[in-house]
Amino acid sequence: MKKRIGSVAVVVDKREKVSDQINKILSKNAECIIGRMGIPSAEHGLSMISLIVEGTPDQIGAITGQLGNLPGVNLKSALTAVEVE
């Protein structure tokens, strides 16, 4: 299966409860992550993480599935039609 480029937007409520688990998931899947930016929002009590990813749809689905199963984590992902080697 060919790799594709995509993005994942993650919104975390109560970051202190799941930040260790999020970091473990992202570290375990570092080979698929091209870029990562995290922004805290004290005003709303949320944290946002933006990921640029490169991997097969199965690999990206595994990452988003693991993250999405954590309490207080909401996310959306989008894969482009661009295939890379």
UniProtKB/TrEMBL annotation:
<dbReference type="InterPro" id="IPR045865">
    <property type="entry name" value="ACT-like_dom_sf"/>
</dbReference>
<dbReference type="InterPro" id="IPR027271">
    <property type="entry name" value="Acetolactate_synth/TF_NikR_C"/>
</dbReference>
<protein>
    <recommendedName>
        <fullName>Iron-only hydrogenase system regulator</fullName>
    </recommendedName>
</protein>
<dbReference type="Pfam" id="PF21699">
    <property type="entry name" value="TM1266-like"/>
</dbReference>
<dbReference type="InterPro" id="IPR023860">
    <property type="entry name" value="FeFe-hyd_TM1266"/>
</dbReference>
